[in-house]
Design a protein that fits this description.
Blueprint lengths: L1 E3 L6 E3 L2 E5 L2 E5 L4 E9 L4 E9 L9 E4 L3 E5 L4 E8 L3 E2 L2 E2 L2 E7 L17 E6 L2 E6 L6 E9 L5 E13 L1 E9 L2 E8 L10 E5 L2 E2 L7 E5 L5 E6 L10 E2 L6 E4 L3 E5 L4 E8 L4 E8 L16 E2 L7 E6 L8 E9 L4 E2 L6 E6 L1 E11 L2 E10 L9 E5 L2 E4 L3 E6 L4 E6 L11 E2 L5 E4 L5 E2 L4 E6 L11 E7 L7 E6 L2 E4 L8 E9 L2 E4 L3 E3 L1 E13 L4 E2 L4 E10 L3 E6 L2 E6 L3 E4 L8 E9 L2 E4 L3 E3 L1 E2 L6 E3 L6 E2 L4 E6 L7 E8 L8 E4 L3 E4 L8 E9 L2 E9 L1 E2 L2 H16 L4 H39 L4 E6 L7 E6 L9 E3 L2 E3 L6
Parallel strand pairs: 8-16, 25-32, 41-49, 50-58, 60-67
Antiparallel strand pairs: 1-2, 3-4, 5-6, 7-9, 9-14, 10-11, 12-15, 13-14, 15-16, 17-18, 18-21, 19-20, 19-22, 22-23, 24-26, 26-29, 27-30, 28-29, 30-31, 30-32, 33-34, 34-37, 35-36, 35-38, 38-39, 40-42, 42-45, 43-44, 43-46, 46-47, 46-48, 49-51, 51-54, 52-53, 52-55, 55-56, 55-57, 59-61, 61-64, 62-63, ...
Helix pairs in contact: 1-2
């Protein structure tokens, strides 16, 4: 904490600075003026305080002050005491430090927190040099003092005289007013600081609306009873008082009773009625059957012989479940029913407890200082007996004992040693975790984890259990799951697979088990089959099939093609390093472990490839005669299906470009002339590429045309030499011409006609055959019809020739 020095920009430190309940406390080292601004946030205002820190301003003497010296408290209410203390900051140049702060009543060495009468009812805390004590359920008047100890040679200091707390009991006082009227006044024992502003009045146990003052006026002949309380403390209501000489009322002898577990207790009241009573009984306010005296059906509940106007409820072998508020109820002969909202008698059943004050670990054992106590103070004083491992050791309220792992200690009320024993307090050993199922842990089944301690009495020992789940891949991070000795999974899930551990803890320490791994197993599920690449698959590509499945333990995989088993493997991948057309088909996989199996859906793999080298059918095996016809057919294996084109290069036009002749698989050449001779090429093409094949076609002239061409050449060559001979021959030829010409024409015609007829008769036709498959695409395979001639392909510079073999 720092504060700004007046007239300077620097900040000077304070040794201590605190605001508490509108008070400002500061301790400074040097003489300076300090300017402190305090804002009241609720009033939206502020004020300035001038602090003067000078030697001697804060006394260096030991001491302290209380904010109040006397407090009036309604019985059963809550009060808070406050004390600020001071001491010299140094001694002989050495700084003094506070070691301990506590409150006490009689003995300055006895910390009030260790007093059995106050267990569970007090809370002490300090802020700087201001300490407070809060007491709940105030039961008696007493004086409370504050003490602090330091590391100073003198020890500590008690702030006196202390704070006097006076417990107030209310009662109704009758004061005559005038004529037949009375004033009823709500009064208490003398306590000067006490002046409540609002009261609550009750008539026959029911609240009177709008009656808020200390005095309430009634008619003297009233047969009603009246009670009062301070508003806000209605639980501390006064006993009912008759306005006249007789009335209907119930008065309890006590408002609170504390009983040791296993003992017997009597709950008593006195009651009066303006008329004769017909029925009366006790009931618990937490029971839904408050109008039914069913409590007497429990053999532990008794109603001893009653005297007129007094009733007793006796509970034997009291248990902590008997802790409740009990009320008495009666009806009169005139139909009046006493059913009051006023508090009855609160019974608290307490067990003996062991309170550990300090623990010191020494080697393999520990030394503990302990106190035997109860949560409330019974009517009769108690003495206690201690037992270590079942044997009596001391008859004291406080003990110091040495314990080893596995030892236990307990205490009991000596008057009820066999029925009121504290839970066993063990020096804990390291626990272990056991499972309800020792085999495979299957998803969906129940599973229980139990935290066990060796040689431990679970029925009578007090220990706190806690379960943790270790997060994946994090060594130190643990998730808190639940409390209790068992961790229950009604239907365990795969996500519950993890390491689990438990801790056990009591007042003597804490131990942690070794983690246990829970492996939740389940059959294959969420099976999927994928292909990579996912688009069009082309011959030669690397193709991977992946079968993905969630399973524990890890599954094995079986691969199928066209419903035929390919392989069984632990690998979930099936690969083609260079896929081929024959690898195409329908695939699926099966995932299997010892808990089950599942099949995937199917995928179809279609392998695309470029057209294979075409096959040309219908080509003649030798020369064809002029005027004949030829049908050429081209076929190629391809996916997707190929398209065809025909190209031709003439024999006498070497070097000229090829010329496309047709765009179908079949190329029909009719009435062949000599110019039809040449190389014919078929090109099969698709989106994946192209391929081609060629065939040579040779067309020959008819026989008469050849003879004439030869004769003309001979005559031209011998015309000059054989003029005479020609003339002579001409005369001879003229004389013989009719018969020879007729025979020549007949012979030539027969040759060409016969050849033409023969060629026409031997035209080759193509046949188209389709192969169908139920599990793949349909492709066209064109197969030529086999002619009577057998074709033998011969390759010459990429050109195929046909050779005829005669039958």
């Amino acid at each position: 904490m720092s504060i700004r020095q007046r007239g300077r920009r620097s900040l000077l430190p304070l040794d201590f600075f605190e605001c508490h309940d509108h008070l400002l406390f500061a301790t400074c080292r040097r003489s300076h003026f300090y300017l402190f601004t305090y804002s009241n946030m609720s009033l939206k205002t502020g004020f300035v305080v001038l602090l003067l820190c000078m030697p001697g301003l804060l006394s260096a003497e030991w001491g302290g002050t209380y904010t109040e010296e006397e407090i009036c408290a309604i019985k059963g209410s809550t009060v808070t005491l406050q004390c600020s203390f001071k001491f010299p900051p140094t001694e002989g140049g050495r700084e003094i430090k506070v070691k301990k702060t506590f409150w006490f009543t009689k003995d300055p060495k006895e910390d009030l927190r260790l007093d059995p009468q106050y267990f569970g009812r007090i809370q002490s805390e300090c802020h700087g040099n201001i300490c407070s004590l809060t007491i709940t359920d105030v039961r008696r008047s007493d004086e409370y003092k504050f003490r602090f100890t330091t590391d100073h040679s003198g020890g500590g200091y008690s702030v006196t005289p202390g704070v006097k707390v006076t417990v107030i009991d209310l009662k109704v006082q009758k004061v005559p007013k005038y004529s037949n009227w009375f004033d009823l006044k709500c009064v208490s024992n003398t306590c000067s600081p006490w002046s409540p502003s609002s009261y609550v009045w009750y008539k026959n146990g029911e609240e009177i609306q709008n009656a808020k003052s200390q005095v309430y006026t009634v008619w003297y002949d009233s047969t009603d009873s009246y009670s009062c309380a301070v508003r806000g403390h209605e639980q501390a209501v006064s006993p009912p008082e008759c306005a006249y000489w007789s009335c209907n009322k119930v008065v309890y002898d006590k408002r609170h009773i504390c009983a040791i577990q296993g003992s017997s207790v009597d709950i008593e009241c006195e009651y009066t009625s303006y008329r004769n009573t017909l029925t009366h009984f006790w009931f618990r306010t937490d029971s839904s059957h408050s109008g039914n005296p069913s409590m007497t059906e429990d053999p532990r509940y008794e109603l001893p012989s009653e005297t007129s106007g007094k009733s007793t409820l006796r509970i034997k072998d009291v248990r902590q479940s008997d802790s409740a508020e009990y009320r008495f109820k009666f009806t009169t002969s005139y139909g009046f029913e006493w059913s009051s909202i006023l508090p009855g008698i609160t019974l608290t059943v307490t067990a003996v407890q062991v309170q550990v004050m300090s623990v010191t670990v020494e080697d393999s054992h520990l030394v503990a200082q302990m106190l035997c106590h109860t949560s409330c103070l019974p009517e009769a004083p108690l003495s206690f007996v201690w037992q270590q491992n079942g044997e009596d050791i001391k008859h004291e309220t406080k003990v110091e004992v040495t314990l080893s792992p596995g030892d236990y200690i307990t205490c009991a009320a000596q008057q009820h040693q066999h029925i009121s024993i504290s839970p066993l307090l063990y020096v804990l050993k390291r626990p272990s975790v056991s499972l309800s199922d020792t085999g495979d842990i299957l998803e969906g089944r129940p599973l229980t984890l139990t935290c066990n301690i060796h040689n431990f009495n679970y029925s009578s020992a007090t220990v706190d259990y806690c379960w943790y789940k270790k997060k994946k891949n994090v060594s130190s991070d643990e998730e808190v799951l639940s409390k209790g000795r068992q961790l229950v999974f009604k239907s365990i899930k795969s996500s519950d697979s993890a390491k689990y551990l438990c801790t056990v803890e009591n007042q003597l320490g804490k131990k942690t088990s070794e983690p246990v791994f829970i492996d939740v197993q389940y059959p294959p599920r969420s099976l999927s089959l994928s292909v990579s690449p996912s688009g069009v698959i082309v011959e030669g590509q690397s193709v991977n099939l992946t079968c993905s499945s969630d399973a524990n333990p890890p599954p094995s995989y079986t691969w199928y093609k066209d419903r035929q088993t390919l392989t069984q493997t632990l690998q979930k991948h099936y690969s083609f390093t260079s896929i081929r057309p024959e690898d195409a088909g329908t695939f699926h996989c099966m995932s299997e472990n010892k808990h089950g199996r599942v099949n995937s859906s199917t995928v179809v793999i279609d392998v695309q490839y470029a057209p294979r080298r075409p096959v040309i059918s219908g080509a003649p095996s030798s020369e064809v005669s002029e005027g004949s016809s030829v049908w050429l057919t081209c076929s190629s294996d391809a996916n997707p299906q190929a398209k065809y084109s025909w190209w031709k290069r003439s024999e006498d036009q070497i070097g000229d470009e090829d010329v496309r002749r047709a765009t179908s698989a079949t190329f029909n050449l009719t009435d062949l002339g000599l110019e039809a001779s040449g190389v014919y090429m078929c090109v099969a093409s698709s989106s994946r590429g192209s391929s081609n094949s060629s065939v040579r076609l040779q067309v020959k002239a008819c026989s008469w045309s050849v003879t004439m061409a030869t004769a003309v050449g001979s005559v031209a060559g011998l015309v000059l030499v054989l003029v005479v001979l020609v003339l002579t021959a001409f005369l001879v030829w003229r004389k013989k011409r009719p018969s020879k010409e007729s025979r020549a024409k007949s012979s030539a015609g027969a040759d060409c006609g016969e050849a033409s007829t023969r060629e026409q008769k031997e035209v080759v036709y193509s046949q188209v055959h389709f192969t169908t498959s139920s599990e793949g695409p349909v492709y066209a395979n064109i197969t030529p019809a086999m002619p009577r001639r057998h074709l033998v392909e011969e390759s010459e510079d990429g050109v195929e020739y046909a050779t005829v073999r005669k039958a």
